[in-house]
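Crash report, auto-generated. Payload:
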Amino acid sequence: MTTLHTLSVREIADGLHTKQFSSVELTQHFLDRIATHDKAVNSFVTVTADLALEQARLADDLRAKGDTRPLLGVPMAHKDNLCTQGVLTTCGSKMLSNFVAPYNATLVENIANQGFISLGKLNMDEFAMGSDNEKSYFGAVHNPYDLDRVPGGSSGGSASAVASGFVPVATGSDTGGSIRQPASFCGVTGIKPTYGRVSRFGMVAYASSFDQAGAFGRSALDCAYLLQAMSGYDPKDSTSVNKEVPNWVGELDKVASDKPLAGLRVGVPQEYFGTGLNADVKAKIDDALKVYQELGATLVDVHLTDPQITLATYYLLAPAEASSNLSRFDGVRYGYRCENPADLHDLYTRSRSEGFGAEVQRRIIMGTYALSAGYFDAYYVKAQKVRRLILNDFLKAFETCDIIATPTAPTVAYKLGENLSPAEIYMGDVYTIGVNLAGLPSLSHPVGFVGGLPVGLQLIGKHWAENTLLNTTHAYQGATAFHKELPKLG
Ligand code: GLN
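Recovered output after restart:
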């Protein structure tokens, strides 16, 4: 059973159903793989081995007694910014390094209700701020394709765990690309649904009007299973939208084998192919677009807001929301508290200075500045207006196309410890953040390798059109094999 970790979610579900293996055997296999290889990758902050095996035994018992939930006993893992009752939720931060949530996030609960088993919590950039996963209090995550390189961020633990075969699927969150960019760097598929599709209740807030959870898997079909499980209206999140969740998995089974993309108009925005885009990465994206055409799609020129403007807008608004959201971490109610405070002011100051890392502090300072009296109109209000214009440009583009295709990131994964400046790192988000400003669904899927490192193509859909993203990717993955590649570990 040494290849259990290469199976798709559907193959796992079938294997459990036909008793080729039990959930306990399956879970033990993944736990053994984590124990052997995760020292080098560092994708997990917490492995809940005992709890997972207990749940696997329960799943096997329930199945034997006639429980027919198809995903009963399938392993997965959660990004560590999702509250999990009785299990640490650190957010990759010293501030929450001892925080055990007293309740489950709604999406965690939804996934458990479908029978999935969580193997633990996945490493991330502190408070989901970052693009390289070097900003975790629990150490950097390593890219399984080259352990000297970054996995991307902030959901670098989720992407690297799926790529490494530690779990078939994992949750992530995406405020400005944190699912798509690490998916691209680690050669897996990652989808961020429409804002409002998945409840934010119990997901530690970074920038609330952008934050959205989503799914990582090796294929669109694997992602569809997990996304299906987690989505749905939640009255506990006022931005959750009461809209029926389509049967994405069922839709994928209907994708035609001959010319599956016939009639699909794929918008290609020139603004996302300009200077800054690595030429080899561009060549891989061009190749993938040719495959789309062979599958029946037509390419259409569209225009979007200059991504440099989008980048500036995001890096003003997201820190502003972060500075407000993170004000709750004061060393008093929960989280890290400094030793021997001299007085209340000292308690606040030192708890926050010692509990937050440099990048989080930088964002809090930028955001507080943008929100302060005298600057609010010039920065925050102005950026909100630009946000609307960015959305308008997307809506206009969608008048002539059904889906938009761009590179996910301008480069492949770079070296750990390269000491890039914050501005250089932010540039890596240039193609992903527009989607979050507009609340659109988006997905990254692998399209090949440059120098042995994966390249991802980003698809952007109309609001609520996750099905178009998944179906298009499924068609591509039916005709190509990049998503089946696995890194060689150890
Ligand atoms: N890299 C972006 C940032 O640092 C996006 C992070 C995210 O999506 N959580 O803000």
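Post-recovery validation: Residues 128-131, 154, 174-178, 206, 318, 429 surround glutamine (CB under 6 Å).
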